[in-house]
Structures are given as structure tokens and as C-alpha cells.
Amino acid sequence: xxxxxxxxxxxxxxxxxxxxxxxxxxxxxxxxxxxxxxxxxxxxxxxxxxxxxxxxxxxxxxxxxxxxxxxxxxxxxxxxxxxxxxxxxxxxxxxxxxxxxxxxxxxxxxxxxxxxxxxxxxxxxxxxxxxxxxxxxxxxxxxxxxxxxxxxxxxxxxxxxxxxxxxxxxxxxxxxxxxxxxxxxxxxxxxxxxxxxxxxxxxxxxxxxxxxxxxxxxxxxxxxxxxxxxxxxxxxxxxxxxxxxxxxxxxxxxxxxxxxxxx
Length: 263
Prior knowledge:
With 263 residues, the chain is mainly β. The chain folds into 3 domains: 14-83, no CATH class; 92-171, Immunoglobulins (Immunoglobulin-like); 176-253. The chain has helices spanning 68-83, 180-190, 247-253, and strands at 14-16, 23-25, 30-33, 36-39, 41-47, 50-59, 92-97, 100-101, 106-112, 122-125, 128-129, 132-135, 139-143, 151-159, 162-163, 167-171, 176-177, 199-205, 212-218, 224-232, 235-242. Strands 8, 10, 11, 14, 15 and 16 form a 6-stranded mixed β-sheet that branches. The protein has a 5-stranded antiparallel β-sheet with strand order 17-21-20-19-18. Mean pLDDT is 78; it is low at 1-29, 41-66 and 81-85.
């Protein structure tokens, strides 16, 4: 029987033996019989840094004295069979909503090949790990790391298949006040929004957890901005901001279920 040997390689390459008319593909393995040496073929597929061997391991290309092309085609086909379905695909981010907000703000990533469960996979914003709230093969909910300062950062999903493409998330500076009003005024000033003529009113407060509330700033004939607040030891902190919220977004932000989005 031929000696079994391991050859590591992804490319398929045919070489003619100097001692016979047989051909080898990515192999240095040989068999000695009757004092003569003849080449054999070992095909190996490399997937995600691991080595997967074709069942059978070693193949002899006997009786193919002048079939260089045939030998390569057969070896390539076997390599494709070995690689098919092996290893994890790289994750792909297709959308990020919202793509701007504050630290602690929740966001939802939609895409493919995230994996059914998180396991050791991660979501990072600017290289900092996010707290993951939910995970499925096509959707991930996570929050913006609190360590980040205002600026734009790449969001990346990393799984056993490798890192995903990068999608930009813009982090706004957040503000805290003894009451919601000064926090809203400072936030709008920082965003270069003219607050002159705006009215600031409370929209709703949670009865389940009174430290959560929803306020708005509006100008007649102008835009309306909503602010999701949470009261901390430092005061009322803006958790999220926008022209509107969805129930899913508020849930990801951590707001109590009885605090409904504006209509």
C-alpha cells in the first residue's frame, strides 16, 4: 500500500515526475515499490486556519501517462468537495440602525453569517467591546460602549469566520443636568441646533421605573427632537436622542416596557 503523507496547500499545481510519466498535484509524497519511486497525490483543504483532509487521504494517478490536465482537474474537484461546507463564513454587516447616537445607546446590526448563537463572537465599536443584548444569524442588538468619546468609529462583528466589513457609527457627546432642561439645551448647543423659540415639555415617564422619562424640544414650523432620559447619581442623563423612536429602539436602550415611543 502507498505511504500516507500530508501536504498543506490550497492551490492546485501539476508537476511532472522526472522518473516517470505520472503527475503529482501539491504533493511530495512518494511510494517505493520494486526499487523504483513513483509519486502519489495527497490533497488537503485549509479552512479557517485548520487542516481538513480528503477522505482516503492519498490518491494514485495511475495509467495517466500523458494526462496532465486530467490529473489537475480531478485533484481540483476533490479539493472543492473537501472544502465545501467546511468552516464558518465571514460575517457581513448590511445595515446599522441607528448609525449615530450616544454612549449606552442601543443599535441593531442586520446582515448574514453571524452564527445562531454568540458563543465567543464579539461586536466592537472603535475596537471596544459592546454589550450584546441579543444575537442571531442575521441580527444583533448591542449598545455603544460607555468608554467612547464623541467621534466616528468602525463597528465590526467578529466570529470564528473572521472579522466583518466595517460600518461607521457616530457617537455624540452626552450631557447630564440636575433637571432634563439644561441637559437638552447643552446637547442642542453642542449639535449646533438653534434652540431659540423652542418649547421643552415632558412626554411620558415610566411608572415601573420613575428614573426613566421621555421629553421633547419643539419649535413651531420647525423640527421636533425627542430625548430619552435616565436619572443617575449625577442627574438626568440623555440616553438617546432623535426625531422619533421605535419600541424596539427603546427596548434596546434599556427603557422600561411601559414607556412607549412618541406617536
